[in-house]
Each structure stands twice: as structure tokens, then as C-alpha cells.
């Protein structure tokens, strides 16, 4: 990567020139950089707001899952069967599903060889277990910190190759000309100054656009920057599709798997400090209050099809926290009411699971210690002792299943702009647990291959031409942030920032109110139109937050448009319950009444969203089918050599 200078508005800025820029330092971005280098494409650089930030490095669950092709004896599987499972989740394009299946083993074994400690039996088989939305034992895990191990191993590989990393720098704007990437703009947090990038390819690995919500299980510092891609003309795909689930609040963590299968007691505290166990009061029988909780371990994400089953738990927690404004906890220290007299009320499935795990013992904490001690130790290291204190929880956004629309090479509709990991909208409505980690690795691999072996060559823009593109695309507006800097700071936009996030969590998450989403969309659009006025006088220290705020407004506009469009066309579906009015529901009878008769409508459709000048427009299209491959070896071999630019 070359360094130079470029003059804007009388100021000299650092100009970085590089063939391919990778934005983001999670397991997707690091794998893209690592793979590009291995393919011989080494004029690359990785830019990140913080090398130790992000979802990959800082999140997990009871045993964080990596979903792949089955690799153990006794488990029949094939690439086509895995592709069909991914495709049948709804809202998934067949070509990306086939690529994720085909590259699954290749990506998994790379991680093994880099040192990720996925367990094997004594013969070396990678045995698996069943996860949600799948009936095969394709899932594996290296424990609660699987993605952290992946990220660390990939970072070590990137550093061994001496790939350049620009840390503490936010990329906030993409520059595009004639439908192709020309560069990007960033802000160096160390120097408090703008920087510019001139490049031919950009790989966005910025993660999920979680900053649109207040209640999320994403780690602090993870915001996503989907808005800059939408503003540049990249299309969104399935922006309405999210996963919501029960998570801890003070230390953000997914409370799936064993945390639920040990059946903790759910308690709430009202404004008077009165504490009570609340699940039995909502459900038809006391037994349901533990059997549905047990099932949450397998069926952790909220699902409209399971409102009369395990997902009623999410709805009740939402009702207690949002509608009744109570604080809700999981209590692992005491038995729930249904188990006070033993395990007689357990379903056969729950009883057999505990018995097989040698965990038919008293109290949730002792069951958790028996089945998954690491899950307890994880919280203990954060200063939370589950054996002594209740765990504060809420229903939070955990994963976005939508993102930027990509093709089978993870390239967007903008030439040279790729989206990998959670930034890409490849997951659809229902994805088996753990597919995100496989998709992140495969998407990065596919993008790297496509860039490395591209036959069409483009050259970097000349400096003056590049400067003209930047000015035409509004860089002057951003430079005024420093020019107008009074040093006083401006907290006004921060209050609005937080208020809009809270409104999204209240009316546009697991529970989506059509009337209130329309109102919120108008408020967000108005705020975006007056952004530059609101940003006047912002201090240099606040510029990063200000840039993220603008990106959030763009993303919220597009996401709300997709949600409203989806609500009108599809109604309740997948991870979202759509309400037509503003009524507040309180009782179990109300909850059961809300259960959709069929939420699988339009599973063969994808909603695409285009953003233009503070507005968004959504449309629905058929999914691309799974390709029928010609697998005659000699034909494939010749095509492979041609793609690689080699001759037999």
C-alpha cells in the first residue's frame, strides 16, 4: 500500500492507494485478507476501527456453534443436501447456498489447521450435534468462545504474512463512479483527522448493522456500517430479517443452549420492588413453564411459528419488560415452581436429556455446572456469580439475517464492492444455528478468489479524477465537521441517537407495530434531512459517533422500509410478529390469539431495498434457484484452469 497526500478545501489529507481494501477485523475480514494473500494478491490492506472490537471476537453462547457438512461416521450427508437445507430456510438464493455448502469443509479444515480447537473423537472424527432448524448432526463447537478462537487464529496468520493493518480508523463513505468502486473515506481516531483511500476493490466485513437498536446482544463498539454501502448504491437484501432472543443485559451474552436446558427460574421485579416467578401465571399448566424453557435451548431465536410453544417465553419476557416496565432475571439458585417436587412434570424429551447428561440433580446452577461448567465460568470472569445472584435479561437483537445483496462471489451490484460475514444478506428467514460462522468463512474465500483471479483489470483513478469524484459525492459536507469545530461539543445528536434506537427496539424488533413503524420512519427521515444542522459544532472527539449516527439513520430508513413492506406483503413471519394496531397485549389468551395461522408465506421470495436521497424503496423478487451443476470432471477441470488463467 502506498501513502501520499491529497488536498481538499485547503487541507492536506493522507491518501492511501491500494488494490484491495478490507474493512473490518472479524473472522470474515481477516479470512478475506489471509485468503487474498494466499492466492498471490498481496497489494492489500485491512482497516478497522479497533482490532479487538467486533462481534467475532467478543460474543458467543453456551457452546457457540460452527455449522458445517457432517464429517463423522454414521452421519450421511452431501453438498447438495446441505445446500438444500440452507435454501429451504426461505429467502435464500440457491447459488450462495450451494457455495456455502461446497466450501464448507475447505473452510472448516483451514480453521482446524490454523489451530482452532474443534473436538474430535479418539479416531479423529469431527462429531457433531443437532442445532435449531436442522435435523442432522452438522454442528460443532470449540466452546463458548468459538468465534473468538477463529478470529485470533486468523489474526495470527495475517500478522505472520505482514499484511498491513490500519487500526483505529473508521471507514464511513464509499466512492463509486460508473457503478464501480473508486475508493473510500475514513477518519483516523488517533490523529482526529480524515483520511482517503484510493482502491479498485473493497471487501466490507463490517458486521451486522446492530446500532439501529437499543436492546442488542452485540458487544459495545460493534455498530456495523451498512448505511454507507446503501448510500453508495448497493442494494439491501432481506433487511427485515433478524433473530431476536433472550440475552443477558449487564454482560451481553446469548442465553441459549444449556442456559435454558437446565431450566432456571424466571422472575421479575416491579416498580415497588416486588419479586415473583411469572411464567406459571401466563401458561396453561405449571409443567409448560419448564418444558417450554427447556426447548428454548434448542429453539433459542424467537419464531412466530412457535408462539404456542417455546417462543411464548420470549413474548412473555417482552411483555414484562416493555409493556409492564419490569426488570426480569434468570435465577439459577432456586428451583422453578414446577420442579419443587422433583422431575415428574418434565416432558420425556427433557427428562431423557437430563438423564443422559447425568444431570437429574437439584437446582439449575448444579445442573449447569454438571453439563457445561464453562458457561458458568464465563460469567464469573465478568464478575457475575450465577451461584449467588440472579442474571438480568431482556429480549435482544442477536443477529441480522439480512444485509447487502450479493451474488455467488459475494460481490454486490457495485463492481468491486464485496460484502462478507454478517454484512452480507445471505441468511434468509430460518438459518440453522451456527451457519453464520461458516458463511463468514466461505463468503470471504469466494470474494478473495474472485478478486484474485479476475480477468478484467481496472486501474486506480488518477489523483485529480479521484478528487473530483470525492467532491461530487459530498465529501465537502464531512470536511465541514472539522471546519465548524468549536471545541464545545454537541450532545444534542447523541440524545436523538439513543431515542431512535430505543424506539426501534420497542416497535420494530420482535414485535412490529405497523402504525408506529410508519411514524418512526418519518421521524428518522426528518432527522436525516437535518443531520448537518444537528452536527454543527460537534467536537473532534465526537466526530466518530457523529459519523456512526448518520450511518444509523440511513440504515434505519432502509430497514424500516423493508419491515413495513414485508409486514404488508407477508404479515407475521419468521422472527417478527406484526401487529396492525397499537393495542397492548397482557394475557396468555392474547398471546395465543396472535399466533399466525401460517408464517411461511413467500419463503421463495427475497425483499430487495434500494436507498436514494433520504428515502428507500423495497420490492420483492423470486429467489435464485440452486444451480444444476455440470459435474463431468474434464469439463470442470478445463473451466477451473480457465478461471485461474492457466492452460492445461
From TrEMBL:
Domain FAD-dependent oxidoreductase 2 FAD-binding: 19-434
A GO term, aspect molecular function: succinate dehydrogenase activity
Keyword check for Phosphoprotein: no
Gene Ontology cellular component terms for the protein in this record: plasma membrane
InterPro entries, per the entry: FAD-dep_OxRdtase_2_FAD-bd, FAD/NAD-bd_sf, SdhA/FrdA/AprA, Succ_DH/fumarate_Rdtase_cat_sf
Keywords, ordered alphabetically: Flavoprotein, Oxidoreductase
GO biological process: anaerobic respiration
Entry keyword Transmembrane: no
Stored Pfam families: FAD_binding_2 (PF00890)
Protein name (database record): FAD-binding protein
Native organism: Congzhengia minquanensis
